[in-house]
Amino acid sequence: MEEEIESIPLPKEATSYFRVTYLSELLINLILSTGVAVALYFSAWSIWYAIPLFVITILWIMYRWGWYAEQRRKNVWYQIYEDRIVLHSGVWSKNLVTIPMFRIQHVSIRRGPLLRHYKLSNVTFYTAGSAYDISGMQVDKAQEVKDVVISLAKAREEY
Fold this sequence. Notes:
The chain crosses the membrane at residues 20-41, 47-65. This protein has helices at residues 13-42, 50-74, 113-117, 139-158, and strands spanning 8-9, 77-80, 84-89, 95-100, 106-110, 120-126, 131-138. It is of the alpha+beta class. A four-stranded antiparallel β-sheet has the order 1-2-3-4. A three-stranded antiparallel β-sheet has the order 5-6-7. It is elongated, with a radius of gyration of 21 Å.
């Protein structure tokens, strides 16, 4: 039987990164809500129809900015075994993906300006069929994961 390997969660800095990435979505929602309210004000419709829209928008902002960003960080973890990688993600809809080591073609680390600011990175595992991301990993941990996965994938290939 295989030994139990610890689940590796994302760092707390990932919550701040997720919140800032949601900022553009939230600003677009707020701008659209304001545009609809202005259009209602100048049309025959009553401005009172815009109030529920603003309430829903504010609740959506509070949800995404507050609760959801933290839950996203808490619900993303991964495990690396000798023969596979297990990725878990999802707040409402849970996803559990198992990637066999012999299927991995290459691994990349991506760091945009926002990720560099929070000292985080994204690791992507590429197979012939698709790509799997882990967003919000610490830089040194991402490099360690990349090196371990590449060495295990090579070992499986030679085996």
